[in-house]
Design goal:
Helicase, Ruva Protein, domain 3; 50% helix; Rossmann fold; 11 strands; alpha/beta; 4 domains; Zinc Finger, Delta Prime, domain 3; 5-stranded parallel sheet
Length: 539
């Protein structure tokens, strides 16, 4: 006899045997017991959650000669004939390959005939969302008022694609993803029946890979069983071409440390071990999702499927990352996943790792916010620039006001006052004189409050800053080194946000510039300037 796959061999034969869908099986059993059988059912849910299984059980239950507790008895002649596929009154249709209007018209012509042997003619239409629009229209009237001897059971993984006219004519049942504990329980039962040794960690890993689908879980178990009777976590990892939990932890550590060489060498090792790059990307996404859950769910049962030892390792690693950084990494992984289909997968994965390990290479908003948050918290500092000695000196040099000149913008600004005569300052604002001296802006905090609405990122960068007015320039004094990078960057939105906020409070539009103390501006030696700062701090 030909080998039978485990998911077929251990397909439930009664509603009581169905795992994880008690909210559905209880209702169906009640309908069978009371004799209140509907004319059209819709089973919706992800793959491998029991839709087709429940449809087959329901087809036998409505025709069973001696149902027990709403379940088919499995012993009467009709049950045995249906199980052996000897009853022509149970019709299964694959809508993916029979989706034309002619197929539905043929079905509509057949339903008028009485059942040949069974009590009901049952039509199971799988993947019903694949039917064409004319086919749906041809099915509508028959689905609404079928003959008394006909029962329709529609199954779909994409219920949102069904017309509302179809949904309104059916009893809808939504199949949930099966709980990981239920899957592990079923896997151990099947493994025992097949004389297989399945470790708890291996069962947990299979349940995580199955993503709530019992059929997928049994298929993975079937694959692992072909390599031997002892199934461990390593067996599952090798059979499914997974990276493995240790590799994922190591890769995340490389990303956290900014170790591009270590990350790329580990990727090369995984590639040579035939680990699929798309699968690795999904596993990394799942790994950082687990870290995000750990950072946000501090108590109760976390929605993470893993062993206790792996959970402890995840908790230790989550402490190394900030939540903003994790979200930025997840955004980048999701973006790379969208490009994985039509590109060189290894090269794309390498570029992704380079950006993950080097925050300066990231250009998305989430990554920028994560870097700013880390700078504010004092968690990171700017790394030294490797360059020629002359360049290094220029990096450490305190910038003069002229070095902060903004790049050209699409709307040029006037360099002279906007109105003739003296400018009347707003309350609290320092008067803008013509003597070239800086005057402190006392209501700078009001400007920052407006800036929080216009640009929260820039408001965070300018936290604890102060400002001065010199002629028609607004001079900003801040210790945050990120400020200069933002206002001199190619994106003019940050500069415009500051100018608009200042104009709203002060009633006048100013150009931007840095505030440089005279004593600091006169110093040419960066080390001397740094020493003076330390002395000022100590005093």
């Amino acid at each position: 006899m030909a080998y039978q796959a485990l998911y077929r061999k251990y397909r439930p034969q009664t509603f009581s045997d169905v795992y994880g869908q008690e909210h559905i099986t209880a209702i169906l059993q009640s309908e069978i017991e009371s004799g209140k059988i509907g004319h059209a059912y819709l089973f919706a849910g992800t793959r491998g959650t029991g839709k087709t299984t429940c449809a087959k059980i329901l087809a036998r239950a409505v025709n069973c000669q001696n149902p027990k507790g709403g379940n088919p008895c499995g012993e009467c002649e009709m049950c045995r004939m249906i199980l052996s596929d000897d009853v022509t009154d149970i019709v299964e249709i694959d809508a993916a390959s029979n989706n034309g209007v002619d197929n539905i018209r043929e079905l509509r012509d057949q339903v008028v005939f009485s059942p040949a042997m069974a009590k009901y003619r049952v039509y199971i239409i799988d993947e019903v969302h694949m039917l064409s629009t004319p086919a749906f229209n041809a099915l509508l009237k028959t689905l609404e008022e079928p003959p008394e001897h006909v029962v329709f059971i529609l199954a779909t993984t994409e219920v949102h694609k069904l017309p509302a006219t179809i949904l309104s004519r059916c009893q809808r049942f939504d199949f949930r993803r099966i709980d990981s504990e239920k899957i592990c329980e079923r896997l151990k039962y099947v493994a025992g029946k097949e004389n297989l040794t399945l470790t708890d960690d291996a069962a947990t890993l299979i349940a995580a890979a199955a993503d709530g689908g019992m059929r997928d879980a049994l298929s993975i178990l079937d694959l692992c069983a072909s390599s031997g009777g002892d199934i461990t976590e390593e067996t599952v990892t090798a059979a499914c071409s997974m990276a493995g939990s240790e590799y994922l932890l190591n890769m995340a550590d490389y990303i956290n440390a900014g170790d591009t060489e270590g990350a790329l060498m580990l990727l090369d090792k995984l590639h040579n071990s035939s680990v699929d790059m798309s699968r690795l990307l999904l596993e990394m996404t799942s790994h950082f999702r687990d870290l995000m859950i750990i950072k946000t769910v501090s108590s109760g049962r976390r929605p993470i499927v893993c062993s206790k030892a792996h959970m402890a390792a995840l908790e230790a690693q989550a402490a190394k990352f900030g939540l903003s950084e994790i979200i930025a990494i997840l955004n980048m992984l999701q973006s790379s996943a969208a490009l994985m289909v039509d590109s060189n997968r290894r090269s794309l994965m390498e570029m992704t790792l380079l950006r993950l390990c080097t925050p300066k290479l990231r250009n998305d908003a989430a990554s920028l916010e994560a870097r700013i948050a880390a700078l504010e918290a004092g968690q990171i500092t700017e790394r030294p620039v490797k360059s020629e000695p002359a360049q290094a000196a220029s990096v450490n040099k305190i910038p003069a006001a002229e070095e902060f000149e903004e790049i050209s913008e699409s709307i040029p600004e006037a360099t002279e006052p906007e109105a003739e005569g003296p400018v009347i300052p707003e309350p609290g604002a320092a008067p803008a004189g013509d003597d070239g001296e800086e005057r402190p802006l006392s209501n700078w905090q009001d400007v920052l409050e407006v800036l929080k609405v216009k640009s929260p990122i820039m408001a965070g960068v300018l936290k604890d800053s102060s400002a001065y007015i010199r002629e028609n320039r607004l001079l900003i004094d801040t210790e945050n080194t990120q400020f200069k990078n933002l206002v001199n960057g190619s994106n003019p939105l940050y500069r415009e946000a500051i100018k608009n906020a200042a104009q709203e409070v002060l009633g006048k539009r100013y150009n931007l510039g840095p505030y440089v103390k005279k004593a600091e501006a006169d110093e040419t030696d960066p080390l001397t300037a740094f020493a003076n700062k330390l002395k000022a701090f100590e005093n």
